[in-house]
Each structure stands twice: as C-alpha cells, then as structure tokens.
Amino acid sequence: MADLVSLIKKAAVDAVEGEKPAGVLFGTVTSVSPLQVNVEQRLTLSGEMLALTSNVMDYSVELGINWQTGSGGDPSHSHAVTGTKTATVKNGLKIGEKVVLLRMQGGQRFLILDRVRQEG
Predict the structure, then answer these.
(1) Which residues of 50-80 are buried (b: 16+ CB within 10 A; e: fewer)?
(2) What is the pLDDT of residues 12-32, one digit of tens each?
(3) pTM for the full model?
(4) Is the separation of the CB atoms in 115 and 35 below 8 Å?
C-alpha cells in the first residue's frame, strides 16, 4: 500500500513539473542588441521569448510642470513655468547586469521583472 501511495505522489509531482509552472529564475545580460540573457549558465534566452517591464527598459513619460524660476537678470525678474513635457527614462539593460526573470507557465516565455542590485 505504501508503494502505491509513493507511486501516486511521484506521478502527481511529475505531472506538475511536466506543465512547467511559473517560477523565478536569475540570469545575466549577455547582449543588448539583440537582447540576450543567459540563465544559470545553461540556457540563453532572446527575442520573442523575453518580455520586459518598464523597470528594465527605456520609456517615455509625460510630466506636468508648475513652478516659478528664481529671480535674476537686470532688472530682476522671474518666470512661471507650466505645462507638460515628455521625458525619457533611461532604464535599459546593460551587458553584465544580473536580472530576475519570471518563467511563465509552459516555460516558453520569460518576463524580466527587474535588476538584481548588490550592496557594496
């Protein structure tokens, strides 16, 4: 009876692993154009296999501005600065950076969540 229970447990574990559920992996950026990430020194991911969050890519953002310049000039004066401006956030990955990836269920696509930052 114990052998049957062990066999059923093993079959259940094998079935779950066969589905490749989502999981967290760590990788290193080996190329940025095209983007390639080496995962645990055994698998290189690139192209449509990778999806990115804004934490790891350049993106544009529209900013609302409403402030007053300091006094200056002759005669002394200041200016109101208002409106919107578009700024580019330079968050793109660089070669050698360590990243955290989420393997999507099925194991065919990987989401790069963020960089791994090390203190020191």
Answers:
(1) bebeeebeeeeeeeeeeeeeeeeeeeeeeee
(2) 666 556 566 668 999 999 999
(3) 0.68
(4) no
